[in-house]
What we know:
Elements: H1 5-16, E1 22-27, H2 32-45, E2 49-53, E3 74-77, H3 81-90, E4 94-98, E5 105-106, E6 116-120, H4 129-134, E7 137-140, H5 152-169, H6 182-193, H7 195-203, H8 223-226
Parallel strand pairs: 1-2, 1-6, 2-3, 4-6, 4-7, 5-7
Helix pairs in contact: 1-6, 2-5, 6-7
Amino acid sequence: MSLLPRRFERIKSVLSRRMSNLTILTEEIEKPHNLSAILRTCDAIGILEAHAIFNQNKIPTFNNTAQGSQKWVKLINHPSIEVAIKSLRSKGFKLYGTNLKTQSRDYRLFDYTGPTAFVLGAEKWGLSDSATTLVDESVFIPMRGMVQSLNVSVAAATLLFEALRQREECGLIPNSGEGMDEEVFNKTLFEWSYPEVASWCRDNNRHYPSLGQKGEILDDLPRTIKLRC
């Protein structure tokens, strides 16, 4: 059984507005409510993928704050901050790390219309020394109160919405899938539409089936797999 056409159109419409050149990298942010809130903001902004480094003994978990957004924003786990930053930089991202060191500059002074990754550290101690050294720019969010830092999920939202504002002013917000290449769009569209079938295809080293205009699967599949649709 295929998706209802209106459900498929909703999925396709949201994906068409996703951006692959704006992302966030979290370093050992493991509290479920913070991680969930960050992914929910990523979904609201239109981010395709987020990146993270977790403590080796921790498994990321989500709570109701995420509102299911972890299903719509792919979270890529990296083994270390060095590997993560190298990977993002190889794809053309400029990395902005949040901290309160003296060389940090007001986050509003930068241009985020190009490939941008914001790097945020753990709730208690912020970015590691390695991350601070490796990012391209260190930024801070000015405060007027006694407390000199925001909750990490709030800081993430502040930075991401500034990037969105700048891109909207320059007419750089995608509306028709131009925020990613066609292959990534089609792959993600199938995974969002038929997650169980996509998992079966990956397990069996098979290409994803083709989709029709209304979201129907065009290729023949085993009966047991069709029942998952």
